[in-house]
Amino acid sequence: MSPMHHLSSWLQSGDTSTYETWKGISLWESLAQHSRLAFMFDETMANDSKLTSKIILDECSEVFEGLKSLVDVGGGTGTFARALSDAFPNLKCTVFDLPRVVANLQGTENLDFVGGDMFSDTIPPADAILVKVRILLKN
């Protein structure tokens, strides 16, 4: 059984995701409660970012030219921001993700990690904000 088996029920509910309809709690609550699940989720997102960062930097890197700063909101372990900061050494990149995600990550001269919740905390200021949507959200 997967969360997508609950799509019909989810569409009729007030839940924020099919995962919440399936499990009764949000994905974020599950990740906070289960460190192994959180690790697998973070690794999956990092692997996705490896692929997407290569494609984006190969095909449309000009989008980032001239920027002095960028915040990757929900940037996880920083895979995309690290590739971006390597490709553009004069670009100051900040990864903004949950404190549990960024707690032990090391930045570089042009890469920082800031803990916070994008739904309730202030996103650090920058020339550009990057949000990669991988999960279907419903309002």
UniProtKB/TrEMBL annotation:
The keyword Methyltransferase applies. Coiled coil: none annotated. Pfam families: Methyltransf_2 (PF00891). Residues 5-132 form the O-methyltransferase C-terminal domain. The keyword Protease does not apply. Keywords: Methyltransferase, S-adenosyl-L-methionine, Transferase. InterPro entries: COMT-like (IPR016461), COMT_C (IPR001077), SAM-dependent_MTases_sf (IPR029063). GO terms for biological process: methylation. It comes from the Eukaryota. One of its GO terms (molecular function) is O-methyltransferase activity. This is O-methyltransferase C-terminal domain-containing protein. It comes from Ficus carica (Common fig). The lineage of its organism: Eukaryota, Viridiplantae, Streptophyta, Embryophyta, Tracheophyta.
